[in-house]
Amino acid sequence: MSLKERDSKPDLYVAARILKTLKENNAMKRTTLATSCDLAYNRLVKYLEWMSEKGFVETMKKALST
User: Fold this and answer.
1) How many CB atoms are located within 10 Å of the residue 46 CB?
2) What is the CATH number of the domain that holds 22?
C-alpha cells in the first residue's frame, strides 16, 4: 500500500451506505454486500479493512456484521 493510500480518508457516505446495508440485512457475504452497496468488490474490501480496524464491523469467516 502506498503512502497516499494509507493517508487517504474514506468517503463517509460510502461507509454509511455499507453500515446501513449491514444493519438492514445483518450478516452478508462480501460479494452480496458489494452489489447491494453498488461498489466494486476491491473498493469494498478496502473500506471493510478500514472499518474493521476502527471497530465499526466485525469480520467472520463466512459473513460480515455490524
Assistant:
1) 15
2) 1.10.10.10
- Give how many domains the chain has, as a whole number: 1
CA 14 vs CA 24, 25, 32, 61, 62: distances in Å: 15, 17, 16, 23, 22
8: domain range?
A: 3-65
Alpha-carbon gap, residue 2 to 59, rounded angstroms: 24
- Inform me whether the pLDDT recorded for 2 exceeds 50: no
Bridge partners, 59 (sequence order)? 64
Predicted confidence at residue 16, as pLDDT, reads 95
d(CA 46, CA 30): 11
Q: Percentages helix, strand, coil for the chain, rounded to the nearest 5?
A: 60, 10, 30
